[in-house]
Amino acid sequence: MTSVYAANQLSSSDPIAAANSQTIDVQKKEPISISTIQDKMLNAVDNYQSLKGSYHKVTPTVDRVVEFEIQEGSAPGSYVRVQDKSGKSTETRFSGNTISVFDLHTKKVSQNRVGTPIQINKSEPRYYKDENEENHFVYRGDPAVADQASDVALPQAYAFWLYTSVPTITGEDNLFDRNTAIVEGDLEKGLAEKRKATRYKMWVDTETGVLLKLIETNSKNEVVNTLEVTSIEFNKPTHSANFYVPEQVEGFSKNGTGYPENKSEK
Q1: 154 burial class (0-12, 13-18, 19+ CB within 10 angstroms)?
Q2: Strand ranges inside the chain, DSSP E
Q3: How far is CA 19 from each of CA 2, 14, 23, rounded to the nearest angstrom?
Q4: What are the residue boundaries of the structural domains of the chain, listed by start?
Q5: CB 51, CB 64: distance < 8 Å
């Protein structure tokens, strides 16, 4: 416990007495650990009620902007819009137990019923090696089914990197008035080959585990992949009307193919 004096309230006639009477107790800030950061990333959707924002993701094969509005808790729902540089644009809405995917180019919409998200036991490992020394990761589901925004909203795929590398918290930062931990490490060999990068640097919100920024570099220290949040709000009222889709949508026709598989680039 540290005592800090309120200097603007000190008496000029008796500064010592005034100082003693105006001491303020300030809690020392506990350092955050890699395991704590990782746990928050693995379970980020448990750490906020709502999340709204946008981010820009760039890799050698992807250049996209993602806008999202997510409601967790007792009535989960989500809206995610993905705009690729190629011109392809989709909107995904989830409400109750129905997910709707709109292709804004073809004017097609597919709607599917969604079952209960994959549940996990938090006391059990989320990573293990089998008898052949191959890595296995245990993913959990998002009740709001905002999979297209999971890079930021539920960054468990990036949290798994911390198992297969030797990560270090190299500093702290403040992004969007949020305290963030800066986590750095070398990518595991197989992942490095897949991502054409050797090292990563993450900015992680220390309260929720939401990923606010990511930079990956190669052996020449050249930036290869980036992800950067451009706006974000935590625990603000959501517009639930954005999540709901009626059976018939003017200007769109059902494609009858069902909900397309979400192929992640992670």
Answers
A1: buried
A2: 2-5, 23-26, 50-58, 63-71, 77-84, 89-95, 98-103, 108-113, 127-129, 135-137, 168-175, 178-186, 199-205, 211-217, 223-234, 253-254
A3: 14, 9, 6
A4: 34-249
A5: no
3-state secondary structure (DSSP) of residue 210: coil
DSSP 185: E
User: Which residues make Cβ contacts (< 8 Å) with residue 98, sequence separation at least 6?
Assistant: 111, 112, 113, 114, 245
What amino acid occupies position 99? I
Q: Of how many residues is the chain composed?
A: 266
With tokens 């967790």, the residue in question is 72
CATH number of the domain located at residue range(s) 34-249 in this protein: 2.50.20.10
Q: Residue 89's beta-bridge partner residues?
A: 83
DSSP 106-155: TTEEEEEE--PPPP--TTS-SEEE-TT--EEE-----TT--GGGHHHHS-
Residue 182 has pLDDT above 50, yes or no: yes
Q: Which residues pair with 174 in a beta bridge?
A: 179
Give, as one character, the DSSP assignment of residue 238. Answer: P
Strand order in the sheet with 89-95: 168-175, 178-186, 199-205, 211-217, 223-234, 50-58, 63-71, 77-84, 89-95, 98-103, 108-113, 253-254
| Averaged pLDDT, 69-86 | 95
- For residues 161 and 178, what is the distance between their CA atoms, to the nearest angstrom? 23
Q: Is 51:155 a contact under the CB 8 Å cutoff?
A: no
91/99 Cα distance (integer angstroms):
10
Per-residue model confidence as pLDDT tens digits over 103-135: 988 888 888 888 888 888 888 999 999 999 999
